[in-house]
TrEMBL record, chain A:
It comes from Segetibacter aerophilus. It comes from the Bacteria. PROSITE patterns: FAD_PCMH. SMART domains: CO_deh_flav_C. Residues 1-227 form the FAD-binding PCMH-type domain. GO terms for molecular function: FAD binding; oxidoreductase activity. This is FAD-binding molybdopterin dehydrogenase. Keywords: FAD, Flavoprotein. Transmembrane segments: none annotated.
From TrEMBL, chain B:
Transmembrane segments: none annotated. InterPro entries: Ald_Oxase/Xan_DH_a/b (IPR000674), Ald_Oxase/Xan_DH_a/b_sf (IPR036856), Ald_Oxase/xanthine_DH-like (IPR016208), AldOxase/xan_DH_MoCoBD1 (IPR008274), AldOxase/xan_DH_MoCoBD2 (IPR046867), AldOxase/xan_DH_Mopterin-bd_sf (IPR037165). The keyword Oxidoreductase applies. The keyword Oxidoreductase applies. This is Oxidoreductase. It comes from Segetibacter aerophilus. One of its GO terms (molecular function) is iron ion binding. Residues 22-127 form the Aldehyde oxidase/xanthine dehydrogenase a/b hammerhead domain. SUPFAM superfamilies: CO dehydrogenase molybdoprotein N-domain-like, Molybdenum cofactor-binding domain. Keywords: Molybdenum, Oxidoreductase.
Amino acid sequence: MRPFKYSASTTINSAAQLLSANPNARILAGGTNILDLMKEDVERPDELVDINRLNLSVVKPITEGVNKGGISIGGLGKNAETANHPLIRQNFPLLTQAILAGASAQIRNMATNGGNLNQRTRCPYFYEVSMPCNKREPGTGCGAREGINRMHAIFGWSESCVAVHPSDMCVALAALDAVVKVQGSSGKVRSIPFAEYHRLPGEMPEKDNTLQHGEVVTSIEIPKNNFASKSYYLKVRDRASYAFALVSVAAAIEMNGSGIKQAWLALGGVAHKPWRAFEAERFLAGKAATADNFRQAAEMEMKQAKALEHNGFKIELGTRAIVLALTRAMNGGTA
Amino acid sequence: MSDLNKSIGQAINRIDGLLKVTGAATYATDYVLKNTVHAVIFKSTIAAGKIKDIETGEAEKAPGVLAVITHKNAPKLNEKGGVRGGALLQSQNIEWYGQHIGLVVAETFEQARYATRLIKVSYEKAEPKVDFEKHKKEAIAPKDNHDAIRGDVDTAFGNAEFKIEAVYETPIEHHNPMETHSTIAFWEGDKVTLYNGSQIVNGAQGAAASTLGIPSANVRIVTPFIGGGFGSKGGQWANLVLAAVAAKAVNRPVKLALTRQQMFNSVGLRQRNHQRMRLAATKDGKLTVLAHETTTHCAIDNEFVEPCGDCSKVMYEVPNSLISYRVVPMNIIIPTYTRGPGKSTGSFALESAIDELAYQLRMDPIEFRLKNEPAKDPSNGKQWSSRTTVQCLQEGAKAFGWGKRKIEPRQNQQGEYLIGYGVACGTYPARQQNSSAIVKLTRKGNDVKATIELAASDLGTGTNTIIAQTASDALGLAVNKITVKIGDSSLPPAAGSVGSVGAASFSNAVNDACEKITDELMKKSTKQFFVRPTVANLMVSENLTAFETRADAKAPADATNYSSHSFNANFAEVWVNSLTGMVKVKRFLAVTGAGKILNPKTARSQIIGGNVWGIGMALTEESILDPRWGNFVTRSLADYHVPSNLDIGTIDTIFIDEKDTIPNKLGVKGIGEVGIVGVAAAVANAIFNATGKRVRDLPITPDKLL
């Protein structure tokens, strides 16, 4: 890898200041993605700001503010610890399922929550530095658009970029209406609704999210909900473990008597960001929880999808996956 | 004494197990040599054309850099010296994406890798031939694989009432051993020592010497432990020789380890095979036609054809048969031997087609196979030394509960899962190759110990252990009195751990040496023996403190008069999620007839390993090329999916009790290759039985089952 400066900070402020002072600095947290990217010469920072000593790994109930009654998870909390925390298992089993569906046990032990949000796409054209990639090197073109794109987007892609966000955890957080708390060098804390955190590629695929340079993800707040017993994370993939999603679905249902009061649906493996299925959600509100309604909702959502050369199957698979995830959510969140 | 005589056939633990689990086993890059520096390869970013220029100035000035070697300054090497695939920095020519075009030597690995990024290469690009779909029609008959024709396939097929014609596709696969190809090179004067994982120790020695243009005696290969190879460490690749070149250039020991990403275009691959099958049978299930036509690709200037038709040659009695190959040179790295070469891919086509035809006849596929069992090897008319296909099928059917299977698909459903059973057979030739071994005995008081020496290799399969067991029985010494020294070209020459010849060749050589030393000691003695004494008795009675001998073992003279093979039958139970298309192989059973099983524990592991790769072949493994540029988009173990633990259900192994001393004295047939043969077809056949869907292109990923 290229020579770089290593800086370690002990306060959010000093970390934010170090980052702000150097536009080519990057955060080092769990290191499960940034170090790989540096070894492959994809990311070429000249400074790493190590934030592992910041005290940002606590899982705790939120006692004030708009998300009062919810749970806050620290930006530096490890994915594995977050998934297995009793407060998370009890209140947000959807998040537990999603985190445990991702990566491998070893990676989950190292990877942090903030890092999970900020990880880069696994598009092979992004990784292979001799290939064109607008995300890695704006203006070089998109290798995947006319290339091998079986794993790529069916929603919200642009001619500049057809990559997908690789996270499972984020798909659940999108469905859970989480809020990302970030802090910059001014000390000011911003709250970003999860649906606005990640971006669609548009003409600026190099920008994955709305985090500004110099800001650190301090925590993620998950509001209280009433669907813990009716939620499910379904991940369809090429092998049973350690594979990115072909399509994944985070589904949750709150019932009102025998009808659906509200449904929450987010899809992974289909877009540059976790894809919140608002169309399907709107359709399901007030309807009976029947297989037929699930199917109609799924088809409605998938109508907006636009396949590339190799990923047409994701439209039928996504439809089926939504139905299955909703069905399993209704069955108490088990397969 | 009676227990000692039974080490062969005992499921003893690996004698090197402790070394491995404690990290003390020395793999190629584990040797610590003073002043070692590091070499990092850099690679072409086009698949065809010429290098116009390489600018290395900036890299040469980078911190820690000792040398940059490219075709401009590399020493002249013999490109026909036995290194596969070339890439020896001898010219500007580029024949595939990711071909080595140079290397940097620096004090540290990181410095070397950084410097590779400062190198600027300009190319004169040519249109690469990388799209197999586009180029397969240009395939021509290879030089070394002539069409094997029996009877009249076209007429018989035309007239047949029951027949299938189908194309089966298998993708490019990579070996992906855990240990990437790595070498430490160290010169002393004009002699070089190469620490390098090599399946064929003497082969590596010869190739390195010949390529470097020095006598074999000046090259020593050290490879006591290998972190897997699966064929990719059978041939020698450029890393072996380039490490020596780099070490010479900087006059220090050089360590060169390929990265995982570099592995995909550095050390060969299993090529894509397009297999057209035509099978026909009479109404009562007698095969009348078996045509197996393979189209594949090879390197631009070097032919290698995986023998996909091998199983079709020997598995069934059939009067009209055609086995043919057509091959098109392409800008893809040269294919090479890959586990179960030809047989694993070929059996997918053959055994799927057999299953398809059995279904067309509405006949149980086991019954169909039994009806077409050949009395002799159909390819050459030789007698079988032994053949266990029938036993494998029958014992397997019983153990697996095959009777519960319905011939019609989609008859077994539990919730959203469709359950199916599949069966498929396999085979692999059994051969003993020339190997020599030295036995050295030492004695202190009544304590007699033996050291066994030969240039064998242990891929992780258990070679060390079976050699100790063989010597233990032949010498009458306990296993813990035996030291095994292998993996060093300075030891007596031996066969390689390739093509399932290792166990038979090594164990027979060691057995010969041990019997010989006992005979020699008896001859020395003036005493009369009523029972054959052990070497320990003799060393004590003759008052010897050290004694040694060497044997040069060959296969029995009449072995080639027979057709000798290992055989198997594979049974799979799959659960297919009817909504998502995800497949789980819930149960798998491999029944294998492979002659004498030297160690049931390591043998079981070998078979399971083959089965797991076969399941991967069926369901997950595929290397995908960008058809425009020739780069692999599957470029790490995150993209190239070997099965995970969760993909694999229960695997059971049964070995048929078989005594066949025609191929070799100890009756060892070899199990390294056969474990993968027939596996993918068993899984694909089970998927058909579960879903009614016949998938003929591997891997069977969820999208193909929607």
